Amino acid sequence: GWDDEGKDSVPSAWIKRHDQVVFLGKVEDMHELLANIHVFVLPSYREGTPRSVLEAMATGRPVITTDVPGCRETVLPGRNGWLVPPRDVPGLVRAMEEALALSLEDLKRMGDASRKLAEERFDAAFVSRKILDGMGLC
Fold first, then answer.
1. Cβ neighbours of 121 (radius 10 Å)
2. What does the pLDDT look like over 4-31, one tens digit per residue?
């Protein structure tokens, strides 16, 4: 979703040229949404590790997100998505245009890399073991 100001910050001419991009606002059913998209986009100024990005990765979607702590750990640029500097609207536009230019096969390959990365880095059992090991409890 966006705040009231954010919705109008995207030029309408850009939206008309890129009719494949849909600005949804607040979403009630993320599982249905993730099943029907090709790329997940989360621009943010600050985050912990964003659950929405992890959900997108777990469902095999490439990710476009902001190069801020928390978000940057979820993307290997060029492999499973794109990192954009914070507040860089032209950079975000470029990343979305690059994603739109890819074939469905290439997007699937990136989505598969997202799924693998989610399993390797963010699986709950793995993270729990890593924490316990770091505390000397394993």
1. 15
2. 555 566 667 766 776 767 777 777 888 8
